[in-house]
Specification:
With 650 residues, the protein is α/β, with parallel strands linked by helices. It is built from 25 helices and 19 strands. A 5-stranded mixed β-sheet has the order 12-11-15-13-14. It has a 4-stranded mixed β-sheet with strand order 2-1-3-4, covered by helices on one side. α8 packs antiparallel against α9. The protein is globular. The relative contact order is 0.08. The C terminus is likely disordered.
Length: 650
């Protein structure tokens, strides 16, 4: 138990003294993404190999948090040389130990290789994915074992808490956060300092602080990575926030689908209690604070703060009207301050370094850095942390390395399921809270999904409206009925049942839903519809008027046929067809039974490119090369032999 700032600094120096800076350190990403690609086996292999070579006293091995480059995991960083190896397998471990650890030799085959320059990047900081970022929040993930509080203390952990408790009044803490310009990273972008000030000034002795870790956007995992990789940074920010508003009890609302995050947060809370950062008389300051973890049941709407509060109270997670705002009447009617994971993690940085330091990053109205999950049709997927104001083009091409397969960029969807789709003409826009709104999108919690030329924008809108239809709590009719009706119309369009007037009806429903819904889910739900109509109206018109999907995505508008002149009867498509719609055997030209085909496109994808026998059509006429007998809709009694089929085709 640490009872004073002096004792904390003494402990920190003792931890640092035991750590030989020249000692080899092997850090292996143990975030959820790398674990899914075999990181646990890599960690086990390193432990076994180091023991086998008798190097246990000379090498330190640790599983760490996610450093962000998920596309190339499992990731291994070897210090003090800062060598970064990508896509490491257990089979690579003996060579890494024998060559890199023992002989200090770099293995080129495991390094990042720049396709443009054909040069290898040895250090993590030299990899283009990293060098164009400003990783204030997630930069320490690869240095910290999330289950070891000493790792966090060695990097200066809890020094911001000490500064707040012993060198600043609660009012000064709030003013510093105000001055920093920090805005909520959960999607709303409300100024954090103003929210804190309202809670601090609210009457009453019982107040609450809450971490909103109910990250539910498809493709988003920013909060999860911070929870898993550096949970103490969130705890430290939360304790500072509690001190600032006069709270002595807090909650961390984490979705149940994050088992590793829940595990690491639980360990961190226990360690913080043992060290004296939680509980009574923290560090001898006479300030008391403790925290409980609440497991959310996975309802997307509970990311909205009033719905989250009701869920914490054991009631159905439904938004309520505001005012009153949670800052004055929140959990059990008491003043409550709610911020998301990333917002809390910024607080120690602001207190330690000052508001002026924080202000050097970002734009005039959006300060600091922001973490985004970059996924979709992009070469380098993963977590990206950049200063506010970085352009979409830089994120996609400098950090993400562009679109794979030589495809063309089509759009990027920002802001989660209720965000908007931004076309290429707006790629030079600065990414901040205000600029994204101007082009019909939102920042949201930070999800970014990149789409290429093969993406159907009508189907994208349908996909997100399907998600929102299921996640709407149903409390208010504009959201409950409006989103459902928009989804019904979009489904009809993608299945070939679209009709004149559907686009105008979608726009009318979208505007009604936006203006009349109770909470942010309903008010922002029309964004996928309005943004895709705004920039890709021609695709809607093509679906409706020509019954054609230009991207060959909408299964109801796509058919597949096999050109008998090109079919080699290799049987690959028949083996892979999940609906058993392909007729044909050895030496028999294959035919697609249209009555069974579900238009999944598997046959088109697996047909060897040297043949190109599978033809897909959408709205067009069946190619003349396909004879009438090859367009069957029922299985025939006999399929002519290959030679006979080819002769008839000729």
């Amino acid at each position: 138990m640490i009872n004073s700032p002096a004792e904390l600094e003494q402990l920190r120096q003792e931890i640092l003294a035991k750590r030989n800076s020249d000692k080899a350190r092997i850090s292996i990403c143990a975030g959820a993404s790398c674990l899914a690609t075999g990181a646990r086996k890599v960690i086990d292999a390193f432990n076994a190999e180091i023991e086998k070579e008798g190097l246990t006293t000379d090498v330190n091995i640790k599983g760490t948090g996610c450093p962000g480059f998920c596309e190339r995991g499992p990731i291994v960083v070897i210090d003090p040389e800062q060598i970064c190896y990508l896509q490491v397998t257990p089979q690579d471990v003996p060579e890494i130990v024998s060559e890199t650890i023992k002989k200090k030799k770099v293995l080129d085959r495991l390094l990042y290789s720049d396709a443009a320059t054909n040069e290898n990047a040895i250090r993590e900081a030299d990899i283009p994915f990293y060098k164009h970022q400003e990783r204030n929040i997630i930069g320490n993930n690869i240095k910290i074992d999330p289950k070891c509080i000493d790792d966090y203390l060695a990097l200066g952990g809890y020094s911001a808490l000490t500064k707040a408790l012993f060198q600043m009044t609660s009012e000064q803490v709030v003013e510093e956060v105000k001055k920093s310009g920090l805005r909520g990273r959960g999607g709303g972008g409300f100024p954090t300092g103003i929210k804190w000030d309202a809670a601090r000034k609210a009457p009453g002795n019982t107040k609450y602080v809450i971490v909103n870790a109910d990250e539910g956007d498809p493709g988003a995992f920013m909060d999860r990575a911070v929870l898993e990789g550096n949970p103490h940074s969130i705890l430290e920010g939360l304790i500072i926030g509690a001190y600032a508003i006069g709270s002595h009890e807090g909650y961390m609302y984490v979705r149940q689908e994050y088992p590793l995050a829940l595990e690491n947060v639980g360990v961190a809370i226990k360690q913080a209690q043992e060290y004296g950062f939680l509980g009574r008389n923290i560090l001898g300051s006479n300030f008391d604070f403790d925290i409980k973890v609440h497991r959310g049941a996975g309802a997307f709407v509970c990311g909205e703060e009033t719905a989250l509060l009701l869920s914490l109270e054991g009631k159905p997670g439904e938004p309520r009207s505001r005012p009153p705002y949670p800052a004055t009447s929140g959990l059990w009617g008491k003043p409550t301050n709610i911020n998301n994971v990333e917002t809390w993690a910024n607080v120690p940085l602001i207190i330690n370094n000052g508001a002026d330091w924080f202000n050097q990053f970002g734009t005039a109205r959006s300060k600091g850095t922001k973490i985004f999950s970059l996924v979709g049709k992009i070469k380098n997927t993963g977590l990206v942390e950049v200063p506010m104001g970085t352009t979409l083009r830089d994120i996609i091409y400098k950090i993400g390395d562009g679109i794979p397969g030589g495809k063309k960029f089509k759009a990027i969807q920002t802001g989660g399921p209720a965000g908007g789709c931004i076309p290429e003409e707006h790629l030079d826009i600065a990414v901040d809270f205000d600029e994204l709104i101007k082009v019909g999108a939102i920042m949201g919690s930070g999800g970014m999904i990149v789409m290429d030329e093969d993406t159907c924008m009508v189907d994208v809108a349908r996909y997100f409206l399907n998600f929102l239809t299921q996640e709407s709590c149903g409390k208010c009719s504009p959201c409950r009925e409006g989103v459902k009706q928009m989804h019904r119309i979009l489904t009809n369009i993608t299945e070939g049942r679209g009709k004149e007037g559907d686009i105008e009806l979608l726009e009318e429903l979208a505007m009604s839903t936006r203006s009349a819904s109770l909470c942010a889910l309903g008010r922002s739900a029309p964004n996928p519809v309005l943004s895709t109509i705004r920039y890709f109206r021609h695709e809607y018109e093509t679906h409706i008027k020509e019954k054609r999907c230009p991207s060959y995505t909408c299964q109801g508008l796509v058919s597949y046929y096999i050109d008998p002149a090109k079919c080699d009867a290799c049987r690959i498509c028949a083996r892979e067809c999940s609906s058993q719609a392909i007729i044909g055997g050895k030496n028999l030209i294959h035919i697609v039974d249209q009555s069974k085909c579900n238009s999944c496109g598997t046959c088109f994808e697996v047909c060897p490119t040297r043949f190109g026998a599978v033809i897909r059509i959408s709205g067009e006429s069946v190619p003349a090369a396909i004879p009438d007998e090859m367009r069957i809709v029922v299985r025939p009694k006999h399929v002519p032999k290959r030679a006979q089929q080819k002769e008839s085709a000729i």
